[in-house]
Known about the structure:
Layout: H1 2-27, E1 35-40, H2 45-60, E2 65-72, H3 82-91, E3 94-98, H4 102-109, H5 115-133, E4 138-141, H6 145-157
Parallel strand pairs: 1-2, 1-4, 2-3
Helix pairs in contact: 1-2, 4-5
Amino acid sequence: xxMKMDKLTNARVQKKVFGQVRRAVQDYNMIEDGDRxxxxxxxxxxxxxxxxxxSNLQKFYPKKFELEAIxxxxxxxxxxFSAVExxxxxxxxxxxxxxxxxxxxxxxxxxxxxxxxLCANMRRGALHNAAKKLNCSKVALGHSRDxxxxxxxxxxxxx
Length: 159
């Protein structure tokens, strides 16, 4: 019984989230016919949810568009993106991993006192460049209200 209830709750949450994405896309005219949209995919819940929501929207939305998932490496550590790769393969979405040295620049070369701001700006620039290289017309990022509030509060401390 508990497993059946979990599935039911999960389906309701998915329907609500996907409905909100569809409504936002329609209300703000975010997608046009022929758009090729780069989705920045970190592997976290926000970006994965956005990728899946846009993939579902693609199936019935009246304006036809393509998706391209892009992950940036930061040049530090050895991240495993195989789960994202498998998801993209299952969704039929092309997946690109763009290697960068952002982490080394921010933390080693610059020794930044406020690394978040520089890192975020460099990641946006690298994602934009990768999207242009892949002939994408738009970039989509998955952020929640919590992300916006957290960024705002961090900026207060780093003035």
